[in-house]
Structure formats: C-alpha cells, structure tokens
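lol forgot to send this yesterday, sorry. struct tokens for the thing we talked abt
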C-alpha cells in the first residue's frame, strides 16, 4: 500500500473518532483550561470553576520495585488546589472499581510534601466517563464517597470517585448535552461550540497531523497496556488489524510486539480465521 492510500486509511479512522476515544480526548484537553473548565462546571453544576493546570497523559510511577504505575488521561488542578483525574473508558473492564481506587491512591501519594500535616491534603476527584452505564441504574452520574456504616454519616476524607454515564441522553440536561458531544462523530452536530471547535481542529484542521501520529502509534500504546494487563492476545489482534489496513508494516508491527517478523507472520496466520 502506498503512502497516499495509507494516509487515507488513517484519516478514515480519525473521521470516526469521538471524545470517548482517549487519543482524541487527551489531545483536545491537553493544556486546554477553557475546555476543562467547561467540562468540570457541567459535571459539578457550577459556573465559577477555574483551572490553573491541565496535563494529558500524566504518568504516576510506583516507587515500589515491580509495582504498577499509571498514566492519567487528563490531570487537572483547579484554582483552589483540588486535583482531578478525568478518564474516558469505552470498555467496561477499563472502568473497574478497583482501578478507580488505585488511581485515587496514586494521586494521594503526591499531595503532601515532607513535613506537611495530613490535614493539608486537598480533595481529589477520579472521574470516569464511560461509554456504557457501568453501574447500570440509568442515572447520568454516580458519586462514590466513603461513609460510616453504623451512623450513615459521611466520612469526609476528601477522596471522591465519580462515574459519568456516557450513554445518558437528555438534551434538556447539561450533562446529557455533554455526553452527546462525547459520543458525537461530527463536530457540527455537537452542542458546545468550544468542544466542537477543538474536535474540528484535530480531526479536520491544523491539528490533524498530530492526530495521525497518535493513530499510527495506537498499536504500540495498546500493546504496552495489554502486556501489563495480560491481554496480549487482544493486542496482537489490534496490531494485525493495523497491518491489514495498511497502517503498519509487518516489520513495524513485529517490532512493537517485541516479536520477530516470522513469529508475527505466524501469529497473523493463526488469527486470520477470527478477524
């Protein structure tokens, strides 16, 4: 496949992307305070939230040898110092409750410096925007906070987890309008002009080259994640699909899979009947 055909394949993939796809979402929100403020103000039903820092794909390394590290989709800090981890998840297993707990605990490790009192810890929010209603009660949002079981009182430790139902539909509700935009493929069909403008930039305008690069690196990123989570078979399927679509060469795919070209070709033959 020549370079023109390959680019057309990549552009076709980009055309079908939505804010629920983390490659697009992280590019749109990276260092984009206005877009992040819009999202947070809608989710928290406020109009005055200001963001002083936004970083996409921020890595939290585990200090324990052999311990698991994480990479946050979007890390944000508001004007009061509160910290937000905003994740998008299309697969239900990616929004596992234990993952939310792990993300929250990793964030906590960086909230205090030596000598600071524990009472100085700022609030943290782990927000999962999921394609499906993973909790399954038909609500737009689910707020998870600790409580004292014997009294029913809140246990106010400043740690918060929020699940946002990406399948929620209600254009009379700002959250419903926001979720419509996260599901939307065409920028012109989006409710919020600020989000539409940023999505259009990466899908159709000056940011398209960065989007193309992100798509071409998709196989490598997914392989790394799959190895960590024990899903190598699924990642091989992804890499093989990228080869068949002409986006990756066999040589590049084999390199990203840490395999020889012959071993990768064998894998392609094994998986050919299932694709």
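and heres what i got for the seq, position by position
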């Amino acid at each position: 496949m020549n370079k023109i055909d390959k680019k057309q394949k990549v552009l076709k993939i980009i055309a079908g992307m939505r804010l629920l796809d983390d490659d697009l979402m992280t590019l749109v929100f990276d260092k984009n305070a206005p877009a992040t403020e819009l999202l947070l103000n809608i989710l928290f039903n406020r109009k005055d939230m200001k963001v002083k820092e936004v970083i996409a794909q921020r890595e939290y390394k585990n200090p324990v040898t052999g311990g698991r590290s994480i990479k946050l989709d979007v890390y944000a800090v508001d004007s009061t110092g509160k910290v937000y981890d905003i994740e998008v998840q299309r697969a239900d297993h990616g929004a596992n409750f234990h993952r939310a707990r792990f993300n929250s605990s990793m964030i906590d490790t960086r909230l205090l410096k030596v000598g600071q009192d524990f009472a100085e810890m700022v609030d943290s929010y782990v927000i999962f925007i999921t394609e499906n209603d993973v909790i399954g009660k038909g609500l737009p949002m689910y707020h998870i906070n600790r409580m004292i079981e014997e009294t029913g009182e809140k246990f106010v430790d400043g740690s918060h987890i929020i699940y946002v139902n990406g399948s929620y539909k209600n254009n009379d509700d700002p959250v419903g309008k926001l979720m419509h935009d996260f599901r939307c493929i065409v920028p012109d069909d989006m409710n919020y002009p600020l989000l539409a403008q940023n999505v259009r930039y990466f899908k159709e305008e000056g940011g398209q080259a960065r989007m193309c690069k992100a798509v071409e690196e998709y196989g490598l990123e997914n392989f790394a994640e799959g190895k960590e989570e024990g899903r190598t078979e699924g990642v091989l399927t992804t890499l093989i699909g990228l080869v068949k679509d002409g986006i990756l060469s066999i040589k590049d795919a084999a390199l990203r899979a840490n395999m020889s070209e012959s071993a990768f070709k064998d894998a392609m033959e094994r998986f050919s009947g299932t694709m």
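The first helix runs from residue 3 to 15. anyway ping me if u want another try
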